[in-house]
Structure prediction request, 977 residues.
Amino acid sequence: MLAEAARNAEFRAMREHRPDAAASGLATLRNRAVRDKRDRLLEALEDKPGRSFFSLLFGNSPYLTRMLLRDTQFAEALASQSSQALADRVLEELSAADPTMNRDRLMRLLRRQRSRVAILVAACDCYGVWDVMQCAATLSETADRTVHLATEHLLLDRVRRGELAHPGENPAGPRWGYFLLAAGRHGARELGYTGDLSLIALYDPDVVEYTGTRSPEDCFARVTRDMARILQARTRHGYVFRTDLRLRPDAPATPLAITRHFALEYYRRSGRTWERATLINARPVAGDVTAGSGFLSELRPFIWEEGLDFDSVEDIHSISRQIHRFRRRGAPRARGLDLALSPGGIREIEFFVLMHQLAYGGRSRHLRGSGVLPMLDTIEREHFVLPREAADLRDAYLTLRRVEHRVQMVNDQPTRALPASRSGLDNVACLAGLESGDELTVVAQRAMERVHQLFQTRFTAPEKKPDLTELILDGPAGGPEPQPVLREEGFRKPQDAVEIFRGWAEGGHASTSSARARAAVRAVLPELIAALGRTPDPDRALTRIDHFFDALPADVSFFPMVKANTWLLNLVAVVMGSAPGLAESLRLNPRILEAVLDPAFFLPLPDREALASALSERLDGVDDFRERVATLEVWTREHRFQIGIQTLQNLVTSEDALRCRSDLADIAAATVLQMAIAETGERFGAVAGSRCAVLALGDLGARELAHDSTLDLVLVADYPSAGDATNPGDHVDEARFYDRIASRLFSTLEHHTEHGSLYRVREQGAPDVADPSPTITLHQLLTRLSGAMSTRDLMALVRSRVICGDEQVRQAVERGIRDALSHRVDPGQLAEDVAAMRRLRHTDPPDDPFGLSHGPGGLLDLRLLAQYLVVRYAHAFPQTISGETLDCFETLAAAEAISAEELQTLADATRMQRAIRDMLGLASEGGITIHEAPGVLREKLAVALQYDSPEALEEGYGSARDRVFGIFQNRVELKSG
Prediction:
């Protein structure tokens, strides 16, 4: 491929945006090539073309740099093999892979192959070896084979588990009855560099041979869920593809996999224009391809309506309105220009083609294909556009797709907007072989102007003018349009807002179907619009509210409720506009709003005793296991929502929020443990003289449970024969009894319903993390605690505690932990081990979306330092043994193990970073740092942390981290030798 690239003008036109990064990358690659004995790679690096090939990637893309430096084998292949041979090999390895391999191997394989395709496509695209559509086709083919392999793996796993019968061999492929349709760009084989996979999962009950104990619906929903997790879970090897499963019929109300019968009936009865558009590009990519093809054949009458009748004309208007939602007034900005959604962007080209297909596809079979460019050619041949117009659209599409790819390959981000910074623009320009970001912007704008001019002549309705409730809900009868009024309130997509508001007033949701509800909509609409206008993003807030209303059952009278309590509108608007996590919780659990009307909702958070008493009262008279679990889930979600709201409104400190979440989890675990013990005893008989308790580690063990923390739990069991090693077979029944309890406990805590899951649970084997068993006997635990323990285990013990269960077991475990931590350790070895642990975590850190945990002076350093100091000094000051980070520092200072100045620094930094993490976690989608947070959010943080301004907060934040890292270096790293 190196030889192919070196011949092209694109290769010679590229520049390095960061020469220092290019030089560093080359040096590292050379060193690793020596280490890995990659002779052909070393030979290539001796020549200028070889050095340029890699340095241009290193100097422009941190993402490609990471991928290349960790795969010298593929780097060598790039230097010595052709592009097509490389693509064929990567794809063949996916096709030839054994789907019965274990899950970890599969995930590593998929991530490795995806990484290699990303490198190959980027190089071929940038260096002009392939055109952008060949790159898209290769990405799509990779996605096809990836989804196929993951799906086969999961289906065969269900066969192994006894849930499905193996369908046997078939010339057309296995007849599983279950299949996945690819839609969108993936379905059209036009997948973007970081494009999502839009997948629809269906199954045919008439074909499926289900042999399990649950149901085919449950089986295939889990297969679909696991497939998505395999592809998009981020591990240390990266991820494969982001997946979107929301295109299935009636997605909010249906399982992840639905029957073909339901889907066919839904599309025939309720299918909408956008669903027709989605299915135009759909094709089967995994599972039972025969069944998938048959399903699409049956859908043809829905997709392709005969003639250009009234419905087809309305379809055209509907698609036109969808395009108008993305339009902007005035000329597009040079920086931050959205290549897809701005006027004249990729989306308008796609809609231009789609509009002709929907309008005329019923009469012209030639228009029933997929892909923008093939269909654009057909539209030209069918004389719907002039050759010059088709050429303009074609050139613009290719230009914008090329620029879009380069924007995305810098950092593997799914953005379609040009960078807002000059440096970012210049970086993309370098990848595109252009002189500057200004030139890049001109190229993109010229392409978009040509498209938009053409698009306006086809699909833009005459603009009319705006007024409020009557103006928005009743529409103009020769009067002004409402959009400008909404635009003044901050809505960037006012037409979207109008359609949503009118949908409510017309009874479009179950919650607005009654006359009373519709009257209430009209009464509260002005206040709601004003409340939404005060949020950072009114459009997004409105979309979330609409989804919330869509999920509301008819018996939840939201609008009458807010009519009587208009202050709720502000709360709902704040949640929808500023806290995606809380918004989703509210959507899944709309009755939570009833708890907000409780006067205690905004009072200080209750302590553990008050919480336990409240739950006991709620459960009184509820005897059925499932009903008790359902009651517990509702109660827990209400209080977690309360903590989130109080955090968002600066009514509670981060420390109180962490402790209250921990108390909630403790009480939930205690309640479920009691229920599991009782149920297991009734079904299988109790074990006389036995008892158990739950040991928590990590965040819950330290009483520092964040809103997104996982519960690390282990069940500690004590029964008469537990310590008898002479005849282990004698206590198999006792061990099985407690394994059943543990399984019931953990599965109930993380049980997923239509309302979501209460917690994520990670079953631990304590204190030896290599032991996968969720149950350990008290004898085994105490034996381990009394023996030699590694620094890692001792550090874990600092953040551990018994959260519920038998009191005698609790006392024994806590005494064993205290004794283990009270042994004197070698200070030098301890410091060396902790320094090594820190280096390991910073070298290969887990996800840190907000940039708070990792990096010098972050939350990880604070936590490690607290654990280190406890292990270091507990033999002399046993009172310092505490899992709570702030308590550790305070007791250490009281014992004079750290200075008062160090205490002040560490405590202030802990409080600050926790508060920032909590607020960012509630108020952002995905990961943003404090520097990237919206101004409104930074102002809220500054107020919460008592800073005069967001700028002062950022300065204080950086200074605090520097001081913490200085203490860590002085206390740990300098003493590690």
In short: The chain is about 60% helix and 5% strand. The two ends are 47 Å apart (CA to CA). Confidence is low (pLDDT under 50) at residues 308-314, 326-332, 459-467, 725-731. The chain has six domains: 1-130, 132-303, 310-459, 469-578, 663-819, 827-975.
